[in-house]
Amino acid sequence: MDTARELLTAGEKRRLTIVASTLIYAEVCGHGEVRSPDAEDVDAKIRAFFEHGFLRWAEVDLPTARHARMLSRAHGLRGADAIHLSSAIRGKAERFMTWDMKDFPIGRVIDGVAVQEPEAYGQGTLPVT
After folding, report:
1. CATH class, range 2-116
2. Domain map of the chain by residue range?
3. Exposure winner among 55, 62, 65, 100, fewest CB in 10 A?
């Protein structure tokens, strides 16, 4: 979580650009708390986060879907995983970061995008107690 928080904070501060597939916007609805009929407050927080303006969105359009099908066949990726990687490639990301070591070809460069485990960038901070 610390690495994810650092990356998102760096994105919010415009120290790096985060490319995200529009599919992720819908995927966060998979958690039971978010699907609840009285989850307006949770949904509002999700909307505020995603629409804050620091993410560069990659639309899931027909060319992205076609590219994802090719990636799926070439690398054994499932549909949503292939969409996310295709979105990163089409969005001209340098890196595609994932903790999903089982399904993604970690350490490979695919169509110019390095697939890797998440790592923080820039100078971190030390907690002062």
Report:
1. alpha beta
2. 2-116
3. 62
Q: Global pTM? A: 0.82
pLDDT in tens, the chain (129 residues): 688 888 888 888 888 888 999 999 888 876 666 677 777 888 888 888 888 888 999 999 999 999 999 999 999 999 999 999 999 999 999 999 999 999 999 999 999 999 999 987 655 554 555
Write the CB contacts of 68 (distance below 8 Å, at least 6 apart in sequence). 77, 79, 82, 83, 85, 86
Sign of CA dihedral 102, 61, 120, 28: negative
Residue 74 tokens read as 């070439």
Q: What is the rounded distance in angstroms from the CA atom of residue 120 to the CA atom of residue 99?
A: 13
